[in-house]
Amino acid sequence: MTHIMLEPGFDFQQAGKEVLDIERQGLEQLDQYINDDFTRACEMMFYCQGKVVVMGMGKSGHIGKKMAATFASTGTPAFFVHPAEASHGDLGMVSTSDIVIAISNSGESNEILALIPVLKRLKVALICITSRPESSMARAADIHLCVKVPHEACPLGLAPTTSTTATLVMGDALAVALLKARGFTAEDFALSHPGGALGRKLLLRVSDIMHSGDEIPHVTQEASLRDALLEITRKNLGMTAIVDDLMHIQGIFTDGDLRRVFDMGIDFQNASIASVMTPGGIRVRPNMLAVDALNLMQSKHITAVMVADGDQLIGIVHMHDMLRAGVV
């Protein structure tokens, strides 16, 4: 393409807003296609004993990849297979217990049409998403989902724009409807996202990151304030728990309490920790989500919290532990 000069006063913002308006109108038309065929497709996928295999060429393939990824992360096992590669061996990935979703705006994708006889022979259920109910793919499908838009946002009417957006939304509608039908939870979602921040927030428990055993700063009520300060220094968590011989919590003493003691003019050499500790103290259970413990610590303006089973001290979790674990 030869280089051309930009037309004086050309309004990029107006051009962009026109695209939004056209695609918005296209999505408004989509509601009519959430019909009995949509219900049948959802039921077929809900009861599928295998996986949902999504196929599409060109831009439909890009939409299909996103659709498969959304299914897989929301409780519907799915993957994408390129139709051209399927004709050269990748069709072996598809089993008789699977469902194939084939996407083509025209419904006449040669690469997909070439696969349909084999899919029929294997008795693989076929859902086709096209804009033409009379197309070859629609007529061959067990279930046809129509996704038709009035206009493409491309002024030439050539580049798939509104049609691909509408197909993407139809895929999201299928995935979310199935998610709700399955009773899919946030924790289920996190299990498929263990490496991300979301997974860490939804899966990580206090017990996974707390300090336990010899790492727990603790002294008995008979200890002196000096002994408690030495314990705080040794364990480097900015606090110490005060416990009895069975590790039952009696109280807590923190760096913040130390500043208060300074203001009181207490004799550090002779004062007992029992005389300056905060009785009881905030605590969390080991099975609490780390993100919930973090929210509690932030709301109480504290940097460390005791982990307890009832009154029994079993650990300490610090804000720095949250940072290292990527919860913050």
From TrEMBL:
<keyword id="KW-0479">Metal-binding</keyword>
<dbReference type="Pfam" id="PF01380">
    <property type="entry name" value="SIS"/>
</dbReference>
<dbReference type="GO" id="GO:0097367">
    <property type="term" value="F:carbohydrate derivative binding"/>
</dbReference>
<comment type="pathway">
    <text>Carbohydrate biosynthesis; 3-deoxy-D-manno-octulosonate biosynthesis; 3-deoxy-D-manno-octulosonate from D-ribulose 5-phosphate: step 1/3.</text>
</comment>
<dbReference type="GO" id="GO:0019146">
    <property type="term" value="F:arabinose-5-phosphate isomerase activity"/>
</dbReference>
<protein>
    <recommendedName>
        <fullName>Arabinose 5-phosphate isomerase</fullName>
        <ecNumber>5.3.1.13</ecNumber>
    </recommendedName>
</protein>
<dbReference type="GO" id="GO:0005975">
    <property type="term" value="P:carbohydrate metabolic process"/>
</dbReference>
<feature type="site" description="Catalytically relevant">
    <location>
        <position position="152"/>
    </location>
</feature>
<dbReference type="GO" id="GO:0046872">
    <property type="term" value="F:metal ion binding"/>
</dbReference>
<feature type="site" description="Catalytically relevant">
    <location>
        <position position="111"/>
    </location>
</feature>
<comment type="pathway">
    <text>Bacterial outer membrane biogenesis; lipopolysaccharide biosynthesis.</text>
</comment>
<feature type="site" description="Catalytically relevant">
    <location>
        <position position="59"/>
    </location>
</feature>
<feature type="domain" description="SIS">
    <location>
        <begin position="41"/>
        <end position="184"/>
    </location>
</feature>
<dbReference type="InterPro" id="IPR001347">
    <property type="entry name" value="SIS_dom"/>
</dbReference>
<comment type="similarity">
    <text>Belongs to the SIS family. GutQ/KpsF subfamily.</text>
</comment>
<feature type="site" description="Catalytically relevant">
    <location>
        <position position="193"/>
    </location>
</feature>
<comment type="subunit">
    <text>Homotetramer.</text>
</comment>
<feature type="domain" description="CBS">
    <location>
        <begin position="210"/>
        <end position="268"/>
    </location>
</feature>
<dbReference type="InterPro" id="IPR046348">
    <property type="entry name" value="SIS_dom_sf"/>
</dbReference>
<dbReference type="InterPro" id="IPR046342">
    <property type="entry name" value="CBS_dom_sf"/>
</dbReference>
<keyword id="KW-0413">Isomerase</keyword>
<keyword id="KW-0129">CBS domain</keyword>
<keyword id="KW-0677">Repeat</keyword>
<dbReference type="InterPro" id="IPR035474">
    <property type="entry name" value="SIS_Kpsf"/>
</dbReference>
<dbReference type="InterPro" id="IPR000644">
    <property type="entry name" value="CBS_dom"/>
</dbReference>
<dbReference type="GO" id="GO:1901135">
    <property type="term" value="P:carbohydrate derivative metabolic process"/>
</dbReference>
<feature type="binding site">
    <location>
        <position position="82"/>
    </location>
    <ligand>
        <name>Zn(2+)</name>
    </ligand>
</feature>
<dbReference type="InterPro" id="IPR004800">
    <property type="entry name" value="KdsD/KpsF-type"/>
</dbReference>
<keyword id="KW-0862">Zinc</keyword>
<feature type="domain" description="CBS">
    <location>
        <begin position="277"/>
        <end position="328"/>
    </location>
</feature>
<dbReference type="InterPro" id="IPR050986">
    <property type="entry name" value="GutQ/KpsF_isomerases"/>
</dbReference>
<dbReference type="Pfam" id="PF00571">
    <property type="entry name" value="CBS"/>
</dbReference>
